[in-house]
Amino acid sequence: MLQCLIRLSELYLNYAEALNEYQPNHPDITTYLNKVRNRAGLPNIATGLSQARMREEIRLERRIELAFEGKRYFDVRRWKVADSEGYKQGGNYYGMDMTKGSSLSDPNFHKRVVAVRRAEWNDRFYFMPWHQMEIDRNKQLVQVPGY
């Protein structure tokens, strides 16, 4: 069975992101971003946005378009924003306690509770450590700081 590994919309978003970093305000940025948006029935994005504003628009579009495809984990690390607001990768994650309350309309059911506690973000998490086998194989290889 043939499996699609990359979609055309991801290529468009990658190109728009790279072009925004290399040559801000290039007309192709909005052209390819709008191709992805128009396919989904969304209106065109405004032209003439600053580089920082366009970066946020591209990141938002990637988040929505590539949801549940396993791209977000690597995007957040590539952008090095895992410790900033809106991209938090550590701390408490909340949910609802399904054992509380007698019905879905019971207020006890809808109280936020900590569902998962993840380690607080540390900048060393931006990089994966080298496996000991690789370090043994290449004596000049140095372990990533923090591991």
Largest sheet: 2 strands, antiparallel
Instruction: Label the overall shape.
Output: extended
* Average of pLDDT: 91
* Radius of gyration, CA atoms, in whole angstroms: 21 Å
Query: How much helical structure, as a percent, in the residues?
Result: 25-40%
Total strand count, please? 2
As residue ranges, the low-confidence spans are: none
Strand portion: 5-15%
List SSEs in N-to-C order. HHHHEEH
Number of helices: 5
Order of strands in the sheet with the most strands?
1-2
Separation of the first and last Cα atoms:
39 Å
Supply the helix-strand structural class: mainly alpha
Explain this structure.
Helix content is 39%, strand content 9%. Strands 1-2 form a two-stranded antiparallel ribbon. Helix 1 runs antiparallel to helix 2 and helix 1 packs antiparallel against helix 3. The longest helix is centred in the first third of the chain and has 15 residues. The mean pLDDT is 91.
